[in-house]
Specification:
By secondary structure, the chain is mostly beta strands. Helix content is 12%, strand content 45%. It has three helices and nine strands; from the N terminus they run H-E-E-E-E-H-E-E-H-E-E-E. Strands 1, 2, 3, 4, 5, 6, 7, 8 and 9 form a nine-stranded antiparallel β-sheet that branches. The two termini are 22 Å apart. Bound molecules: flavin mononucleotide. Flavin mononucleotide binds next to strand 2, strand 4 and helix 2.
Amino acid sequence: MARGVADRRHPARHPTFVTMADAGPQARTVVLRGWQDGQAEFHTDKQSAKVVELEAEPRAALHVWVPKQKLQIRLNCLVELVHSDPQRWDRVPEAARGVYGGSHAPGAVLDRPEDFEEAPDQARFTAVLARVQTADLLHLGDDRHRRAVYHRSDSAWLGQWLAP
Ligand SMILES: Cc1cc2nc3c(=O)[nH]c(=O)nc-3n(C[C@H](O)[C@H](O)[C@H](O)COP(=O)(O)O)c2cc1C
């Protein structure tokens, strides 16, 4: 996961992030901005559906498939939201700020795509901190498939093998 932050070509750069909505599970691609101590960070628009979903249900999941290593990473997380953080906002390049804010909330109905206008807005900038509780790893080895699950505990990660 740390490689995904450092290397924009690594598959972990673009995990799939899954939330629970009233209508059922919702999956979407995000850009991994941080990874530390088993916590992922990405950024979003405060008015996006995922923020509403996470406020109601902070349990979420991240998914990455790393083809070169034949490794599937499934992470179950507890999410904390940080809104309008000035230090994080300062680190977002000017050119990239336009995706946070704008004339309409993400998912709003438009008559034409051109009706949407970008308007960078720190008040609409939300950091999503996804703290991993459980990691389920599947390796498709040439000799056999291996699957392991790790649970976060107070002092360490407790792991065990699972049937693939
Ligand atoms: C390559 C790629 C990277 C994306 N990165 C982000 C991101 O970092 N944050 C984000 O909120 N949306 C990102 N999106 C857009 C989301 O996938 C999604 O369409 C959008 O956030 C609206 O999701 P929601 O309505 O479920 O909240 C990205 C999409 C693509 C294709």
